[in-house]
Design the sequence.
């Protein structure tokens, strides 16, 4: 005990000393262009061009092959990689279109087997769209089959909402792309997870890659994807898969590793061969974690819906982006709700499907055994008949019982717009005052303070913290991350990103900790707050931009508020979890020692919950970084803005990747420090 | 090392079949260099050098046989290597050196396919933490090994339903493991291990995770099953009382070495090492020994009382009756022939003699 106190004490002294040296350095180093203590030379400035050139070489010149082109009917020379990616894109695009045309009708799948000429000559050769009532009805039956009345009701509400608001078409476009990207991500993630489980070497290689992949901003994937795969729905799907696979790998691996060795032995003693052991024992036993992975994949797919629309994915995301760009808040809100509803429905359907139980004593007739399939058949027939009847009711114009064209539903846009107008009229001066005060008195001074840090002082501070927390190894790790950023030409931009993230994290942590501590007092409040966190987390990050633009217009404040809302979710969740997980016996021991509420919080709950809360802060930082980069959409001048610029640059691939790595490395440095500290602390407290 | 030699003298003398399980100087050695060092010494285990190299002996030269229908209980405290030995015999871990034969076939040279066949048809195993598949119902769990063999869903479920009856789980067929108590879960584990009708039954501390009362109940249930099924059993436990209660013969292990292999009565009467004696000292002998173990040779038949006690009766059950007689009591075998005599002096000796005087646990 005494030892512990001394070492802790000396650590805080170390921190204080570090801070003093840091401030002295900041004050004593002059901001001169040439001083290496002030800014490091941009030695890595040439790397983006090198990346661009080598990618171009691999893509268009490396390993030329002869290939027969059907359209011009002769052989042409093309690069191997280009041909491979082109075939892959073609296959993916076909799958997406196939599903899309089941929902919406069309000719492209037929074209794939024939030709455009054939379609022109045979006007009958086209895929009829399913009436929306049929799709919705089947989804409701599916929901009922999987989890009874409530799920059916949720599905019904969601589909009707989408249809009534005239978003059926884009929703089906989004769905067709999710229905391809999500299963592929799940399979890929599960496969890689299994490989990593079987071979420790693979795991050792995969883990750092996953760390980088999960902290890279979404935008940085987009340029490389367009270079390799072009623009379109398939490119969006590929970017989505790249982004959605890492959490799936991680969770599969986590689940597989948590299986007790006895279950594996039981499988072996029951005579499983390797395949049976994998598919009948290991994967089902790890299914809880794997399902969380599936869930994450679906969420990521929908979160990417907007971002994928940058590179040509059609659907709700594209429309949302358009609405945001035109500042049509009402429409953006309706579209946002559509995305959220689809996310929730897919999430619940997949979870219920995985938890479905088979009853062996069902000695049932054909009708009863296939009742859901039959119900869907009835729905199909009824839908078709309805659509046919509809053609009589809606004689001229749109048959609402067959298909609702885009934006021909009802809309509440005017209501929201007038709401925004009203707020602008009534609150404008107040909000603007707050806005200006925040920017002038807090944000700008803070930004200037960050920008006036000499690079040597920053290194000293960060590596010093690393050394105090985790020794030389940690110091070198975080120093390495920092060095990469310092040697690029974007050090100042990175500082701005860091300032915005720091500000948002501080506010988020304060709000999250306070709300979390208050809610953890009661069981009911805990349940409610966790439910709210769960729900908010299913929202794609873009959604958070909508209300803040509504209130604050296009300013830095909007970005920061969106970031704060988004980043408060993990801060709150981890605080609640940490406080609720304080062992019962310790609580009882506290009660018997006669603590009051405040003493309990300060002496028992907070110290024990603190390591877990730190992990929440870690998540907060990652979330905040993401959102800051997405905030570039509204307009900031940090790394995110440059990533966004690289999107429209033909040679942006190198820039995009380097900038993405800069963001990732900021995240990874923080992640390393906090995780290291929390792990040591948890071990010390015996909570690990 | 007292192992290997004293084991076959009395217990399996009346069994003429060749052993179902035979272990011949089995070693399980943990350590980085154990494999390469063994290769250098042509497979000869040089205990001293290996130990100097930092290797740990999970199992150190274990040799024993189990004959058909016999229940061999491996007893030892945690870290004694008992579970490791069981895993060697079921080939869940690779044996470092030595040979293991299952019904005369060399287990360690089998290829994966043969091993799977063996497990599908001849082996069943029960685990300490039950190791049920959490996503399958009771019925599906029991049917699982059958389905792995390729039995159709319908047939396997039917067979599983029969096992449910056998293990008194009726009414809970469609429960998931998490909805069952520990005792019920282990019943499922037992039913699953018996579903393929194996000849050899491995049980790895099957009742250790259960409450004392449930444990007693499960032991009774287990004895009832064994009475019906006559499996060849390798049973691992850390509970000496459980071993005494269940075993035909007991293997006592310490630090990977077999200290003694013998029948429960012989272990209690003649512990071969001090370590074994530590366990036997505290054992209430009247609960372990039977009349046959302590009877004296028949002297004068006319001098016996009218009371007759069966040879296999445990002393505890007859003690009061024998003490109430003034004359010695005759001990009879299954054919009601007198094979020995029991007098009150030997009963009193068992109840209050040697061990009783030292540790008054027996009542």
Sequence:
């Amino acid at each position: 005990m005494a030892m512990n106190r001394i070492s802790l004490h000396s650590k805080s002294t170390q921190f204080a000393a570090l801070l003093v040296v840091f401030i002295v350095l900041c004050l004593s180093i002059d901001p001169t262009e040439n001083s290496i203590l002030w800014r490091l030379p941009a030695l890595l400035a040439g790397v983006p061009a090198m990346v661009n050139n080598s990618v171009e070489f691999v893509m268009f010149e490396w390993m030329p092959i002869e290939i027969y082109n059907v359209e011009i009917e002769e052989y042409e020379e093309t690069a191997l990689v280009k041909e491979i990616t082109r075939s892959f894109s073609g296959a993916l695009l076909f799958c997406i279109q196939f599903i899309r045309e089941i929902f919406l009708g069309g000719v492209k799948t037929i074209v794939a087997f024939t030709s455009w000429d054939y379609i022109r000559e045979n006007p009958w050769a086209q895929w009829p769209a399913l009436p929306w009532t049929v799709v919705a009805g089947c989804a409701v039956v599916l929901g009922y089959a999987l989890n009874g009345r409530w799920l059916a009701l949720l599905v019904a509400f969601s589909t009707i909402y989408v249809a009534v608001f005239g978003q059926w078409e884009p929703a089906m476009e989004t769905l067709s792309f999710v229905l391809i990207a999500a299963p592929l991500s799940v399979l890929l993630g599960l496969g890689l997870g299994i490989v990593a489980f079987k071979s420790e070497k693979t795991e050792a290689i995969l883990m750092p890659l996953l760390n980088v992949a999960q902290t890279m901003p979404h935008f940085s994937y987009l340029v490389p994807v367009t270079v390799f795969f072009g623009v379109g729905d398939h490119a969006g799907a590929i970017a989505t898969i790249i982004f959605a696979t890492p959490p799936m790998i991680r969770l599969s691996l986590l689940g597989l590793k948590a299986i007790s060795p006895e279950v594996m032995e039981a499988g072996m003693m029951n005579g499983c061969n390797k395949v049976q052991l994998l598919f009948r024992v290991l994967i089902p036993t790890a299914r809880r974690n794997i399902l969380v992975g599936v869930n994450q994949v679906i969420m990521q797919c929908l979160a990417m819906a907007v971002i994928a629309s940058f590179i040509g994915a059609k659907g709700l995301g594209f429309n949302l982006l358009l609405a945001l760009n035109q500042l049509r808040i009402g429409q953006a809100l309706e579209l946002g709700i559509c995305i959220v509803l689809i996310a929730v429905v897919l999430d619940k359907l997949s979870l219920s499907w995985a938890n479905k139980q088979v009853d062996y004593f069902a000695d049932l007739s054909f009708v009863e055994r296939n009742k859901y399939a039959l119900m869907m058949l009835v729905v199909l027939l009824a839908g078709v008949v309805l659509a046919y009847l509809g053609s009589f009711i809606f004689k001229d114009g749109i048959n609402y019982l067959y298909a609702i064209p885009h934006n021909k539903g009802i809309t509440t846009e005017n209501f929201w717009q007038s709401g925004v107008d009203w707020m602008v009229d009534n609150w404008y001066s107040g909000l603007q005052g707050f806005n200006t005060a925040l920017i002038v008195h807090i944000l700008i001074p803070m930004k200037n303070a960050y920008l006036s840090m000499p690079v040597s002082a920053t290194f000293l501070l960060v590596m010093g913290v690393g050394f105090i927390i985790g020794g030389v190894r940690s110091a070198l790790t975080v120093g390495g991350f920092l060095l990469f950023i310092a040697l690029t030409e974007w050090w100042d931009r990175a500082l701005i990103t860091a300032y915005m993230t720091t500000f948002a994290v501080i506010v988020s942590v304060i709000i999250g900790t306070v709300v979390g501590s208050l809610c953890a007092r009661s069981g009911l409040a805990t349940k409610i707050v966790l439910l709210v966190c769960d729900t908010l987390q299913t929202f794609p990050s873009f959604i958070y931009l909508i209300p803040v633009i509504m209130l604050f217009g296009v300013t830095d404040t909007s970005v920061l508020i969106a970031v704060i809302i988004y980043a408060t979710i993990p801060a709150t969740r981890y605080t609640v979890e940490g406080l609720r997980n304080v062992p019962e016996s310790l609580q009882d021991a506290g009660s018997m020692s006669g603590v009051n509420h405040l003493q309990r919080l300060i002496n028992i709950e907070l110290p024990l919950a603190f390591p877990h809360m730190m992990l929440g802060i870690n998540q907060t930082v990652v979330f905040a970084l993401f959102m800051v980069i997405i905030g570039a959409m509204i307009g900031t001048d940090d790394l995110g803005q440059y990533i966004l610029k690289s999107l429209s640059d033909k040679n942006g691939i190198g820039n995009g990747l380097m900038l993405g790595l800069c963001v990732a490395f900021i995240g990874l440095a923080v992640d390393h420090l906090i995780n290291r500290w929390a792990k040591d602390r948890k071990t010390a407290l015996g909570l690990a | 090392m007292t192992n290997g030699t004293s084991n076959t003298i009395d217990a399996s003398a009346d069994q003429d079949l060749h052993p179902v399980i035979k272990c011949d100087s089995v070693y399980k050695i943990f350590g980085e260099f154990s494999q390469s060092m063994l290769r250098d010494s042509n497979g000869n285990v040089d205990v001293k050098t290996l130990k100097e190299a930092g290797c740990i002996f999970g199992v150190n030269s274990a040799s024993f046989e189990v004959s058909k229908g016999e229940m061999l209980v491996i007893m030892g405290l945690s870290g004694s290597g008992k579970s490791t030995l069981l895993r060697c015999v079921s080939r869940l871990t690779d044996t470092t050196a030595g040979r293991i034969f299952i019904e005369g076939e060399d287990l360690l040279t089998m290829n994966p396919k043969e091993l799977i066949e063996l497990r599908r048809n001849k082996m069943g195993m029960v685990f300490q933490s039950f190791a049920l598949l959490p996503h399958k119902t009771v019925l599906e769990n029991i049917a699982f090994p059958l389905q792995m063999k390729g039995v159709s869903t319908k047939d396997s479920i039917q067979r599983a339903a029969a096992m449910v009856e056998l293990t008194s789980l009726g009414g809970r067929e469609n429960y998931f493991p998490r909805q069952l108590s520990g005792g019920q879960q282990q019943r499922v584990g037992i039913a699953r291990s018996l579903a393929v009708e194996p000849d050899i039954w491995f049980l790895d501390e099957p009742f250790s995770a259960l409450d004392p009362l449930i444990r007693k109940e499960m032991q009774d249930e287990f004895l009832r099953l064994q009475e019906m099924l006559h499996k060849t059993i390798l049973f691992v436990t850390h509970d000496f009382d459980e071993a005494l209660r269940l075993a035909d013969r007991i293997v006592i292990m310490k630090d990977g070495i077999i200290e003694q292999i013998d029948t429960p009565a012989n272990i209690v009467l003649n512990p071969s090492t001090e370590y074994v004696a530590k366990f036997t000292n505290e054992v209430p002998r009247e609960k372990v020994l039977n009349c046959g173990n302590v009877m004296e040779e028949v002297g004068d038949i006319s001098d016996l009382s009218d009371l007759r006690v069966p040879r296999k009766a445990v002393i505890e059950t007859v003690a009061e009756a024998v003490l109430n007689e003034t004359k010695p009591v005759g001990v009879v075998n299954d054919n009601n022939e007198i094979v020995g005599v029991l007098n009150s002096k030997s009963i009193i000796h068992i109840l209050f003699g040697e061990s009783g005087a030292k540790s008054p646990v027996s009542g």
Remarks:
- The first strand of chain A starts at residue 64 and ends at 69.
- Chain A touches chain B through 22 residues (CB under 8 Å).
